[in-house]
Write a structure and sequence with these properties.
With about 220 residues, the chain is mainly alpha-helical. Helices cover about 50% and strands about 0% of the residues. It contains 11 helices and 2 strands; from the N terminus they run ααββααααααααα. The termini are far apart.
Length: about 220
C-alpha cells in the first residue's frame, strides 16, 4: 500500500503542477471579488451554517484558506470531479477570472499576522491512523501548512465537514455525490467510517487559520 500511495502522490503532484501553472495564468483580484461573492456568503458567511445533503454538516470555513486550493476545488466542481449539486451549479456559473478573484479574496479574508499554530499530539490510535494514511505528507505536520498551495489547510476545520468530505472520496458511481481524486480515494478507502471520523475529529480539534467571517450579502448587492 505504501508503494501505491507513493505512486499516487507522484501522480497527484504532477497533476497539481499542471493545474497550478494554469491558475497562474489568471491573476486574482480580491477587490473585484467583492462584487462576485454573493453566492458564497449565503452559506460560508454564516457561522454554523449547515448543509443538508447528503447529510447534515457544517459547511467548510473558507476565509483564510489558500487561494490555489480554492481555485482547484472550484475547477474540480466545474469538471464534475466533485459532484455536490449546489457547488457544481455555482462553479459552472463562474469564469476562470471569477474563480481567481474569489480565491484571492478568501485567502486574505480575515487573515491576521498571528504565528502559525502548532499541532497538538494525537493519541496513539489516531497517530497510527495518520501514519497509515501518510496525511502529513501532503497537509504538513501542523495541518495548516500544506506542502503544495493547491492542497487545503485542514487544522481547525469543522470535524463534521471533514468527515463527510473524507467519506465522499469513497463514494463511486453516484451522479450527485462523491469526489474523484486518485490520491484521496486511495487514502480514504483504507479506513472504516469510524476511523475517518476519528481522523476528522483530531484534525478539527487543532488550532488553525481557517474561520467564518460573518457577512451580509445585501451589503454587497447594494453596491
Amino acid at each position: 500500500m505504501n508503494k501505491l500511495l507513493t505512486s499516487l502522490f507522484a501522480l497527484a503532484v504532477a497533476s497539481v503542477t499542471a493545474v497550478s501553472v494554469q491558475a497562474q495564468e489568471v491573476k486574482g483580484d480580491a477587490k473585484a471579488a467583492e462584487q462576485k461573492i454573493a453566492m458564497c456568503i449565503g452559506c460560508h458567511g454564516i457561522k454554523g451554517y449547515q448543509a443538508s445533503f447528503p447529510e447534515v454538516y457544517r459547511v467548510p470555513m473558507i476565509s483564510g484558506q489558500g487561494a490555489k486550493y480554492i481555485s482547484s476545488a472550484l475547477h474540480a466542481y466545474q469538471k464534475g470531479e466533485r459532484k455536490h449539486p449546489t457547488m457544481r451549479g455555482i462553479a459552472a456559473s463562474l469564469t476562470d477570472q471569477d474563480i481567481a478573484d474569489i480565491a484571492a479574496y478568501y485567502e486574505q479574508h480575515g487573515k491576521t499576522d498571528a504565528p502559525a499554530p502548532v499541532a497538538a499530539a494525537p493519541d496513539a490510535k489516531v497517530a497510527e491512523l495518520l501514519k497509515k494514511g501518510a496525511c502529513v505528507s501532503c497537509h504538513g505536520d501542523n495541518f495548516s501548512k500544506p506542502i503544495d498551495p493547491s492542497y487545503p489547510k485542514l487544522a481547525g476545520q469543522h470535524k463534521d465537514y471533514l468527515f463527510v468530505a473524507l467519506k465522499s472520496y469513497k463514494t463511486e458511481n453516484l451522479s450527485t455525490w462523491g469526489r474523484g481524486n486518485a490520491v484521496m480515494g486511495g487514502v480514504a478507502k483504507q479506513f472504516s467510517n469510524n476511523e475517518l471520523k476519528a481522523l476528522a475529529g483530531y484534525v478539527g480539534s487543532l488550532d488553525g487559520e481557517l474561520k467564518t467571517v460573518p457577512q451580509s450579502k445585501f451589503r454587497w448587492l447594494s453596491h
